[in-house]
Structures are given as structure tokens and as C-alpha cells.
Amino acid sequence: MVHNVAGPSPGLKTIGRISKPFFTGLLQVSLVAVFLLWLLDTGAEAMNYRWQWYRIPQYLWFFEDGEWFPAELLEGLRVTLQISAVSLLLTLAIGLVTALLRVSGSVIGRGLSWGYVELIRNTPLLVQIYLLYFVFGPVLGLERFTTAVLALSLFQGAYTAEIFRAGLTSVDRGQFEASNSLGLSALDSYRFVILPQVIKRILPPLTNEAVSLVKNSSIVSVMAIFDLTTEGRNIVADTAMPFEVWFTVAGIYLVVTLTLSGLAAWLAYRLDTPSH
């Protein structure tokens, strides 16, 4: 007698596919966090350090005149998110244009895009920020926020360009020929035929670039921008609570990047991106 055993429903598979990266990452980070907390607590006892976690909420939010307001850390998070969001849009634009130049028939275009990618990838981000902030910024009249966005976008754009280029070269030549045979213009071919296929294939590495961009945004604190990292450093200077403050800052960054990973997993499901 044969028994039919029903597998997981499509809905459960979908939920599992979307939530798996989030919960896997959360579990791994939690294990590491537990070990680090045990290690730090042991060290703090040896140093006779007094934990003051009860003081942290006042730097996240405060209550005044019957309303809740964001405090320093949440205000810094707002600036970090603004810089990251604008930089991400500009990064995608720079990466796509550079990749199209790399695969184009223009010798000058290929040379310029190759020079840009190699220059950015082979110099430190901090040096690029200093050059933009202290040299090109005053010459061009750029504000600190604009300089920070430009520095991050140029840096991440070089890596993103290589991802786009890999996606473009992976599309079969027959797709380009089929577009031409349908009478589509070059713009419409990329818009309706080529780029949708490219996006599906490069979504995972693009997610990595987005997460890296959020983390790299902490470096713009050297420009005295009051982002999350700068606010954390100022609070540490005022309160002498390095452990509590930096763990809180790291936790906020972790929530942001895990949220990004979850959104990317949901988008991969919507686009039916192969999982491997």
C-alpha cells in the first residue's frame, strides 16, 4: 500500500526562503554576541568596570511635553540612513553607466571606465574621502553631506560596475539579436529585455554592496558629519561608557543591515531569482 506524503505547502516554502537568511544571520550573530558578552563581562570584572546600561535609553529617545523625541543616537541613525539611501541610488547609476561603457564598442568609453574602476579599487576609501573633503570639496564648493554621498557613491560604484558587467556578459548574445530583430531601440532592448535578466542574476551581490555601503558610511564621521558613529563617539567622550555605547551602535547597524537582507530576500522571491 502506497501512502502519499504531502510536502511543505508553497506558502511555507516562501516564508522559509524569505526568512532563512535573516534568522540564520541572527542566530550566528547572537551566538557570537553571547560569547563576546561573556568575555567582556569577565574582563570588566577583572577591570572593576561598572556597567551602566540603564543610561543608554536616554541617548535613544526622550519624553518631553507629552511627546517622545529621538535623542542623539536615533538622530545619528537618521543621518546615516539619508546618506546611505542617496548614495545607494547614485551607486547603482554610476555602476550601470560604467558597466555599459566597459562592454561598449567605444575605445574611449572602455578606457575611461577601466581607469575609474582601477583607480577607485586600488586606493583606500579614507584617502578618497580626505581628497574629496580637503581638496576637491573646497574647490567645487561641495557641502559635507554632498561630499560624503559622492565619496561613498564613487567607491561603491566601482565595485557595483563590475557586478553589472558580469551580469551583462552573462546574458546570451541571442537575447541582443532577438531584440534587434524585433525592431527595438538600444534603450528599449536594455530596458525591457536585457536589464530585467541582469537584475535577477546579480541581486545577491548587489545586496552585499548595499550592506557594505551602510557599514562604510560610518567612515564619513571623519568629516564631522553627525551620523550614528559620530554621535556614538561624542557620547563616549561625555560619559566614559565605551562598552555600552559602542555595543548599542553596533546593534543598530546590525538591525539596519539585517533588514536590508530581509528586503533583498523578499525581492529575490518576487523576481523568482535562483537561490543557487
Keywords:
single chain, globular, 9 helices, 2 strands, 276 residues
Secondary-structure blueprint of this entry?
Blueprint: H1 10-47, E1 61-64, E2 67-70, H2 72-102, H3 107-121, H4 125-140, H5 144-170, H6 173-181, H7 186-216, H8 228-239, H9 242-270
Antiparallel strand pairs: 1-2
Helix pairs in contact: 1-9, 2-3, 2-5, 2-8, 3-5, 4-5, 5-7, 6-7, 7-9, 8-9
Number of helices: 9
Note poorly predicted spans: none
The helix/strand order is: HEEHHHHHHHH
- Identify the overall geometry: globular
Mean pLDDT: 88
Total count of strands: 2
Beta-strand content bin: under 5%
Helical content, roughly? Answer: over 70%
Give Rg in angstroms.
Answer: 23 Å
In what order do the strands lie side by side in the largest sheet?
1-2
- Could you give the distance between the termini? 37 Å
Oligomer: single chain
Structural class: mainly alpha
Biggest β-sheet: count, sense, barrel? Answer: 2 strands, antiparallel
Characterise the protein shown here.
The protein is an all-alpha fold. Helix content is 75%, strand content 3%. The protein is built from 9 helices and 2 strands. The protein has helices at residues 10-47, 72-102, 107-121, 125-140, 144-170, 173-181, 186-216, 228-239, 242-270; strands at 61-64, 67-70. The protein has a two-stranded antiparallel sheet. A hairpin with a 2-residue loop joins β1 (61-64) and β2 (67-70). α2 runs antiparallel to α3 (107-121), α2 (72-102) packs across α5 and α8 (228-239) packs antiparallel against α9. The chain is globular. It starts with 9 loop residues before the first helix and ends in a 6-residue tail after the last helix. The model has no long low-confidence stretch (mean pLDDT 88).
